[in-house]
Amino acid sequence: MTVFLTSCAASPPVHQETSDIHHTSTHSSIRPNFVFSKNAQIATDWPLFGNNSWQDRFSPISKINPHTTTRLIKAFDLSLPAMGSNESFPLEQHGLLYVTTCNGSVFAIHAGTGKIRWSYLYSAILPYWMPQINRGVALDNHDVFVLTPNDHLLALNKKTGQLRYAVSVANSTKGIFESMAPLYANGMIIVGSAGGDEGVRGFISAYEARSGKLAWRFYTVPDRGEGWLQRSGHHGGGAVWTTPTYDKTLNSIYVDTGNPSPDYYGMDRPGPDPYTDSVLRLNLIHGTLQFAEQEVPHDLWDYDVASPPLLFLLHGQLTVGEAGKDGYWYEWSAVTGQAVIKPVAFVRQQHSIPTARGVTEWPGSDGGANYGPSAYDPMTKDVYVAGINGPEVLYARPTHHHGFELDLGTGQNPAPAGEWTGTITAIQADSGHISWQIKTATPPIGGVTVNAGGLVWFGLQNGTLEAVSAKTGKLTWHAQTGAPIGSAPILYHWQGYNYVAVVTGGAQSLSNLFPYHGHSHVIAYRLS
After folding, report:
1. How far apart are CA 260 and CA 249, in angstroms?
2. What residues contact 260, with CB distance under 8 A and at least 6 apart?
3. How far apart are CA 338 and CA 483, in angstroms?
4. 3-state SS, one letter per residue, for 264-301
5. How far apart are CA 20 and CA 514, in angstroms?
6. What pLDDT band is residue 127 in, cutting at 50, 70 and 90?
7. What is the pLDDT of residue 267?
8. Is-contact 448 372, C-beta < 8 A?
9. 3-class SS of residue 402
10. Closest C-alpha to 124, from 102, 148, 153, 157
11. Most exposed of 81, 183, 340, 397 (fewest Cβ within 10 Å)?
């Protein structure tokens, strides 16, 4: 994961309100004839990163559809006290939206009016090199959980935002920082580790949600000087920097791992560099490895497995899918790890071994698919993948890595001739055939969402929020938000109305190509 720093300066503190919001029962007409497991219950709220534990980003709201989008009106536009990029994926539950800014501050917002109910403003003195990225929160019945850039897990009271505990999850002096939205699963909070480009030793950990006590930790690469890191010594990688997925019946989580380090020079790390660029299945209770499926052995192109894995049923069998930074869609049995289909390319492919003089690589290190999630529609049985179609020139020379610092071995630049557009691709989950593909004007790095009304939703770096037909890809609705969009929208139902909400501010890794220095916003549209 290569990041470019942008401002995340805090404005004056936000006024806090602490009044309670009472839940109103919801309902929605749902398209018939599709099957969900009881372990991935659908909701007209949006209480989890992917709406349900399978992370398929499917909303059962059907009243927002190609026939009604002309009735969408802006419900509110809330400016947040942070400048620059914002990759927060909002959650909504019982009439409250929960969003973050890139420094780890949290805001609870009335889902109908956009008024701030409470805020927790976080600030810390950070090392000069540490990126400030935050992709959102996790919820249980009592608390809101957030990870801070400087490696703390915070539990905040859900009603008031008051800090209940703060736990150190890593030592930031060793190159580790936190950017992911944590996962709540069966009483556990799952936490990863960013910093693969700095040569950290990647890990995934589980904490008891009520106490903050560490339950287990699984390291994705050996310690420095051991195993396949004997020759590289001061390198590592395998960072876990995006939200995992959970299945209750198997009591398993599915975890993405990042690139080995150094990124582009592989002579000091011969072999496949196991567990990097992989999807891992781990037991939730003990953290034991159940399988590891590697997408890019001996990665030389910074092709982290970053887009969160999602689960779905194929012919009654649980399947795990993932869209890689290498620009391929993958599927495996969620039980055995056996491949279900051949990988499916969704962006241009042009690969070479990096050299000292430089080679042009499609896709570049931003993807393919980056941290943005894919979505699955149980009606069409298609997976929808957001692709970044842009090249980079990669350079590789021997490196001398000391301590924990950025070491790409040796570097990269966006290719001057690069188009830097995007794709949205509908892939038949059972066959791998492409149902349709559209080109987007700028990269949809934040990923996609699909709803029962037959629409696929995504935001672009030019500030446009779009909805296209899930069956054909035809543009159905769009709105200009005024700022780049670095996450995927959500849909929710509150007090008789259906909403689409999105956070704006753009993505740090694309900020050099699509700069933005204004405030981040939370914008919601309501079906009138």
Report:
1. 32
2. 196, 221, 235, 236, 237, 238, 266, 269, 273, 276, 277, 298, 299
3. 42
4. CCCCCCCCCCCCCCEEEEEECCCCCEEEEEECCCCCCC
5. 39
6. confident
7. 87
8. yes
9. coil
10. 148
11. 397
Which tokens is 211 given?
Answer: 């106490």
Residue 52 CA neighbour count, 13 Å, CB half: 23
Q: Compute the average pLDDT of residues 30-46.
A: 54
Structural tokens at position 420: 């830097």
CA angle 110, 114, 118 (to 5 degrees): 55
Q: What one-character-per-residue DSSP string does 151-217 give? A: SEEEEEETTT--EEEEEE-S-GGGT-B--SPPEEETTEEEE-BB-GGGT-B-EEEEEETTT--EEEE
Q: What length is written for the chain?
A: 528
Distance CA 54, CA 26 (A): 22
What are the pLDDT digits (tens) for 10-26?
Answer: 333 333 333 323 223 23
Buried b / exposed e along 30-39 (16+ C-beta atoms within 10 A): bbeebebbee
| Residues 503 and 67: beta-carbon distance below 8 Å | no
Query: If we measure between CA atoms, which residue out of 44, 48, 91 comes closest to residue 311?
Result: 48
Taking the alpha carbons at both ends of the chain, their separation in whole angstroms is 41
Neighbours of 71 (CB within 10 A): 12
The DSSP output letter for 395 is E
Beta strands at 310-314 and 317-323: parallel, antiparallel or unpaired? antiparallel
The partner residues of 184 in beta bridges, in order of sequence, read 189
